[in-house]
Amino acid sequence: MDVKKIYMDADALLEGHFKLSSGNHSQFYLQSAKVLEDPKTAKLLAEALASQIKESGVEIDTVCAPALGGLIAGFALAQALDVRFIFAERVDGIMSIRRGFEVAQDEKVLMCEDIITTGGSAMEAATVVESLGGKIVGVAALANRGFCKRQNSDIATKPNCKLPQNIPFFALADFTFEMYAPDACPLCRDGNEAIKPGSRGN
Ligand code: ZN
To answer: Which pTM was predicted?
Structure first.
């Protein structure tokens, strides 16, 4: 499956000057919502990811996604795996599980995002799941930004990866474009203002 082509075809690989959720800047941004606006594409991607996960033999009771980014990918993946789906959301900046969702003791939970950069949001949500008694058995994403090693890829884990090394990370592709700290960003040096993706019509 050519995931890069799917992102390109959906105009979901944006070029500009973006401020990422990590605070870093990048010339490119992946707008997964544009890919997932077609339910058929979402289903195809989720089924490909699900078959990779099933092949690995990891047992899963529930998929959990951090809102908002992981919601659609997480739901589609849960559907493809035929397991329960819950989500975590920020309340006053703190990741929480609300909406009456319950997590049983030792329930096997797979965290899912649309894109994993350093995995920060996924791990914040994972900490909440664990505090309720759940067991994190893996992490999944449609695409990997190349900071964490995923299954079936040679890209090594970078120091800023926040995913634990003792659980598998599944993704369909690596997108390894550069990311800069704001004070070292060449686009800022050129005098352009970084914009938050999702704002100003992108
Ligand atoms: Zn910049």
So the answer is: 0.91
Q: The domain that contains 155 carries what CATH number?
A: 3.40.50.2020
Length of the chain: 202
Q: How many domains does the chain have?
A: 1
CA of 144 to the centre of ligand 1 (A): 21
Structural domain boundaries, residue 124: 38-176
Q: Is residue 18 part of a domain?
A: no
Q: What are phi and psi of 186, to 5 degrees?
A: -65, -25
Neighbours of ion ligand 1 (CB under 5 A): 25, 185, 187-188, 194
Residue 22 CA, ligand 1 centroid: distance in Å: 13
What is the Cα–Cα distance from 16 to 154, expressed in whole angstroms?
28
Per-residue pLDDT tens digits for 42-71:
999 999 999 999 999 999 999 999 999 899
The answer to whether position 29 is within a domain reads: no
In a domain, 168, yes or no: yes
Low-confidence ranges of the chain (pLDDT < 50): 202
Task: Look at residue 116 and tell me if it is in a domain.
Answer: yes
pLDDT at 198: 66
- What's the CA-to-centroid distance between 161 and ligand 1, angstroms? 21
Provide the 8-state DSSP code for 2.
Answer: -
Token readout for 58 is 């990891």
